[in-house]
Amino acid sequence: MALNFLKPTYLVKSVYDLSVAELKDQGIKAVLTDLDNTLLAWNNPNGTPELHAWLQELKEADIEVVVVSNNTWDRVKKAVAGLDVDYVAWSLKPLPRGILKVLKKQGLKKEEVLMVGDQMLTDVWAAHLAGVRSVLVKQLVESDMWQTWLNRSIEKLAKRIIYRKFGGPIWHDSLGVAAESKDNKTN
C-alpha cells in the first residue's frame, strides 16, 4: 500500500500509557517524543502532574526521554525547561534528521528507541525513515498551533484512505496489548 510509511508500529492512547515494565520488556532505552500535543498540550506549558510522574518513573528506570520537535530552539528550550529532558529542535520531521541525531549522540541502536507522536505525517513518517518503531498517540487537546493546520488537513485525507483499507483505529492502553493485536489498525 502506498501509505504504509504513515502506519505506526503501535497505537497507544497517551504517551503516559508507556510503562517502564513494557518499555524494558521491549528493550527500549530511550523514548523520543514530539512536544506539542504529545508530551505537552501546546497551551499548557507546565505539563500535568501525570506527565511529571511519568518522566520521573522513566528517569528512575534509566530510560531517557528526548524531545524531538520541529519547533524553534527557543520554543523547545522554554517548553522543556522544567521537565529535565534533553531535546532536539528544528528536527525537520518527517525527515529522520532529529531522530538520527539522538541515536548518534546517545550511542543508541535503532531497536532501543521508540518515536512517539500525535501526527502521522511528521512523527510516524520520520520514525519509518529513521528505521525505528513508532507510537501514534491521541492529541492531548483538539486544538493546535496555527502552523499544524496544513499537516492535519493532509493527514485527514491520508486517514480516510488508510481507514478504507484497514478499518478505523483501535487504540490501546499499553504497548503489550498493541503488540499482541493482530489487527493493529491506524488512526
Question: Any key phrases for this structure?
Answer:
187 residues; alpha/beta; Rossmann fold; six-stranded parallel β-sheet; 7 helices; disordered C terminus
Task: Compose a concise summary of this entry.
It contains seven helices and six strands. The longest helix is centred in the C-terminal third of the chain and has 18 residues. GO terms for molecular function: phosphatidylglycerophosphatase activity.
Notes on the protein architecture:
It comes from Fructobacillus pseudoficulneus. GO terms for molecular function: phosphatidylglycerophosphatase activity. Pfam families: Hydrolase. InterPro entries: HAD-like_sf (IPR036412), HAD-SF_hydro_IIIA (IPR006549), HAD_sf (IPR023214), PGPP1/Gep4 (IPR010021). This is HAD superfamily hydrolase. This protein has 187 residues and is an alpha/beta fold. It has a single domain (4-177), classed as Rossmann fold (3-Layer(aba) Sandwich). Helix content is 38%, strand content 12%. It has 7 helices and 6 strands. A 6-stranded parallel sheet has the order 1-6-5-2-3-4, with helices on both faces.
